[in-house]
Amino acid sequence: MKFSLNWQVGYCNSVNSRPEEYFSATVPSAVQLDYAKEYNLPDYREGVNFKDYQWMQEKFWVYTTEFFNSSISEKAKLFLVAKGIDYEYDIYANGEKVFSYEGIYKTAKVDLTHLKNTKIKLEIVIHPAPKCDFDDVFPGTRSEAKQSCKPAVNYGWDFHPRLIALGICDEIYLEATEHTPLNPLVTYTLNNERTRATVFMEAGCKKVKSWTLTDPDGNIVFIGSGESQCFSVDNPRLWWCNGYGKPELYTWQLEIENLGASEFYYGKIGFRTVELTTNDGAVQDLYGIYPKTRTAPPITVTLNGVKIFAKGSNWVAPEVFYGIINRNRSEEMLQLVKNCNMNILRFWGGAVVNKDFFYDVCDELGILVWQEFPLACNNYVATKKYLEVLESEATAIINRLRVHPSLCMWCGGNELFNEWSGMNDQSLALRLLNKLTLELTPEIPFIPTSPLMGMAHGHYRFLYEDGREVIEVMQKVKHTAYTEFGVSSISNLDCLLKIANKEHFFPLEPDDITIAHHAFKAWGDGAHAWVKTIEKYFPNIESIEELIEKSQLIQSVGLQFIYEEARRQKPYCSMALAWCFDEPWPCVANNSIICYPNSVKPGYYAVKSACRDVLASGRIRKFSYKAGEEFDFDLFLLNDSNKQVLDGVVSAYIQIGNGEKVHLIDWQYKNVQVNKNVAGPTVRCILPNVSNAQEMKLILESGAYSSEYTMLYEPEQVKVKQIKKLNE
Predict the structure, then answer these.
(1) How open is the CA angle 356-79-113, to the nearest 5 degrees?
(2) Strand partners, 347
(3) 260: how many CB neighbours lie within 10 A of its CB?
(4) What is the pLDDT of residue 70?
(5) What is the pLDDT of residues 12-64, one digit of tens each?
(6) Mean pLDDT, to the nearest integer, of 304-332?
(7) Residue 515 and residue 497: Cα distance in Å, rounded?
(8) Domain of 31, in residue numbers
């Protein structure tokens, strides 16, 4: 039996003092939002109002509630169960300290049986936000997070204000039970052929009435009783990621006797195997008598023995104060991920580890999960205290997520081997994480950080400092995985209006608001590259609507090209993950595919097209052309599916402005094998002069595999009257 609690909260200046006044608390949430509601603070997302919230991270916050129930059974034990309190805290019951902890992810189960059937006053004292004080720490920066498991993004990032969340961020309740609150565990192993699953069930208590396992159609596969079970399932229906098959889920049910009544627990399992295998061509040949080693570690996700081209994005928390995230919001966002033809999300190590329901939805939708531990862009020095906290928190994360079939890999954290972090393979924090994941989930791969040798983070611009476009650069690089890349654009107007009124954004100038909301100086002075890009291609912008339209066109073109080029580099390349899918508050400009809170940008549809299982693809050379220039492109048929593609035809056309589309070539593709690409011809033509035209399109028609590419066009006074084909 569970009892909900009504909480109040207030702040004070020391651990032993108490607030002068309390006010109503929403749980789960954050103390900052409760205070703002009580005292009518302006919305932290508007303007620079977030600065009015920053003092709160320096205070002690005390949650309090009272509970009395005289009818709890004599057989019952009474527990306070807290699934997430952020971050360091002490729990008091009737003035007695009964529990202390540092961390977010370990569920606290505090035995209060000795106070059963009495009036209980509960207090949770949350300490100020942790801040590392090492000599090499820069106050006010993310380096203050380097001795804690707090999300480093809380401390300020290029897209995130410095707002360090504190409070009860997940479920909390009292539970009367004969047993310690249960976490039943259902696991399995598969034979090499994946034709038989051996299932293991552990209840954690002896009063089990029954276990039941049903298949995805609801048919009963197994019924049994006893504290533990072990049985086989022949020819199990396998769990597949989006685009490769159905994410088949079996349902288990546990019925136990608790205080004279039946109590039920439920869960899902998906049968699958997952590995990271070596990319084709990533192992150097051996020459002479001197053995050489790999040039890049394995990063090809191999699901049920099938090599997957991982198409997805990086995920950050959808809210600055992540305690308010709920299942409905998560379902809506993850459905967008699936509809975008993505099959994987990298849960970035700078953000919070998501709540249970988030992974449930990933299981249901077939979205693979690359899960990072809470380390990012810092050197996490292995002090005794830090390793103790990390071990406790990592163990809780692993045990909570291990049951999800969507989990395909563990990663130590973000950019830990880069020069600004300074960690390496021998860093004790990473060796500890490797040890824990091996012991608790040997079936799930582990890598120490991203990127590793052979993988790439960046670039995040359409136009490089030297004037080259990402379209040109991508064709000349070679990586096994592109695990972060992006192209900036202005946010949608509805997002901008959450920040300031419309007039504030045109002309767009650097000021406190636009800088704080990621329009300027996101990576330091002079680094607002998207502005220079707009000025190069569209020098005469006349309104905020036009600025949004043109910048989002550039983002769409860039993202479409990067995804398709990564796919064209298969099988040496096996992964393309944009930075990033979402952001936790409204930004003026960003790399994200959707705007806060859930507003789709045109780039979303470009990515959706580029991530289809099968498509006709054109490798263009650049974004902007002039009349009289040679326009050339390479044709491809890209196939990431586990099916052979029937022979067919790609008809290529070019359309300049509003003119008629002109046929260039018909390419007959043949013998497109499972998960293989086919390269076609290079097509060339001379562009005619079309007055008043500003854009041109390359159109590839091939039924469901058709694609379209937009480029800029500049007319000139030249003699060319019509398109001159050079392939004839």
Answers:
(1) 170
(2) 315, 371
(3) 8
(4) 85
(5) 999 999 999 999 999 999 999 999 999 999 999 999 999 999 999 999 999 99
(6) 97
(7) 16
(8) 2-129+164-177
Question: In b/e form, how buried is each residue of 418-453, taking b as 16+ CB within 10 angstroms?
Answer: eeebebeeebebbebbbebbeeebeebbbbbbbbbe
Whether pLDDT at 284 is above 90: no
Q: In this structure, what DSSP letter does residue 499 have?
A: T
DSSP symbol at 114:
G
The structure tokens listed for 412 are: 């130590």
- Give yes or no for residue 385 having a pLDDT over 90: yes
Which residue in this structure is represented by tokens 């109590």? 263
How many Å apart are CA 609 and CA 359, to the nearest integer?
Answer: 26
- Determine whether 221 is exposed, middle or buried from the number of CB atoms within 10 Å of its CB (0-12, 13-18, 19+): middle
Dist. CA 650–CA 211, nearest whole Å: 55
The domain boundary, picked from 611, 645, 664, lies at: 611
Give yes or no for a cis peptide into 580 (omega within 30° of 0): yes
Single-letter code of the amino acid located at 74: E
Lowest mean pLDDT among 251-260, 310-319, 463-472, 692-701: 463-472
Number of structural domains in the chain: 4
* pTM, full prediction: 0.96
- Say if 377 falls within a structural domain: no
Structure token digits, residue 332: 């809506």
pLDDT digits (tens, 9 = 90+) for 659-688: 999 999 999 999 999 999 999 999 999 999
Q: Where are the alpha helices (DSSP H) in 592-686?
A: 602-610
pLDDT for residue 292? 67
- CA dist., res. 640 & res. 467, Å (int): 33
User: Would you state the structure tokens that stand for residue 632, as one six-digit string?
Assistant: 């050339």
Final residue of a domain: which of 580, 611, 642? 611
Q: Is 519 within the bounds of a domain?
A: yes
Q: Please list, in sequence order, all residues whose beta carbon lies within 8 angstroms of the beta carbon of residue 300, skipping any fewer than 6 positions away.
A: 276, 277, 278, 279, 307, 308, 480, 571, 574, 575
Q: How does DSSP classify residue 16?
A: T
Q: Which residue has the tokens 């880069």?
A: 418
Whether the bond into 459 is cis, omega within 30 of 0:
yes
In the DSSP assignment, the letter for residue 60 is: E
Please check whether residues 625 and 579 belong to one and the same domain: no
Written as six digits, the tokens of 441 are 């989930």
Nearest to 493 by CA among 506, 512, 474: 506
Nearest to 30 by CA among 145, 164, 152, 141: 164
CATH of the domain at 698: 2.60.40.10
Do 461 and 604 share a structural domain?
yes
Question: In this structure, is the dihedral angle defined by the CA atoms of residues 447, 448, 453 and 455, taken in order, positive or negative?
Answer: positive
Residue 295 has pLDDT above 90, yes or no: no
Query: Residue 506 sits in a domain of what CATH number?
Result: 3.20.20.80
Q: What tens digit of pLDDT does each residue of 410-465 get?
A: 999 999 999 999 999 999 999 999 999 999 999 999 999 999 999 999 889 999 88
The DSSP letter of residue 239 is B
Residue 389 within any structural domain of the chain: no
Q: Is residue 605 located within the same domain as residue 486?
A: yes
The per-residue pLDDT for 441 is 98
Both 574 and 655 in one domain: the answer is: no
What span, in angstroms and rounded, lies between the C-alpha atoms of 293 and 272? 31
Residues 570 and 461 both lie in one domain: yes
318 closest CA partner among 426, 491, 474, 159: 159
Cα distance between residue 18 and residue 22, in whole Å: 10
Q: Does residue 13 share a domain with residue 79?
A: yes
Give CA–CA dist 613/639, Å, rounded. Answer: 6
Q: Are residues 651 and 590 in the same domain?
A: no
Please check whether residue 526 lies inside any domain of the structure.
yes
Q: What is the token pair recorded at 354? A: 């998501």
> Do 20 and 96 reside in the same domain of the chain?
yes
